[in-house]
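Below is how a single chain appears once it has passed through the pipeline. First comes the sequence as given, then the structure the pipeline wrote out for it. We keep one example in the README because the format questions we get most often are answered faster by looking than by reading.
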Amino acid sequence: MSPDRELTSAVWIKSSYSSSSGGECVEFSRSLAVSGLVPIRDSKNPYGPVLAISTGAWSSFVSAVKHEEFRA
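Resulting structure:
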């Protein structure tokens, strides 16, 4: 199956860190994780571009967010 086809049927999960007031809305899908990729998109633009990153990079990013490593 092609990645494009998988994305049309992907189940998107809104980040728990996204605000409910419409800002900072990030969604991800586990649909391509078996192929080593995690697709990410802006939930305010569901038909816009999708960024696909490696599962290792996604894991590192989520860990950094949880440990507040991006706080100024």
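The beta strands are 12-14, 26-29, 37-42, 51-54.

See the next section for the split statistics.
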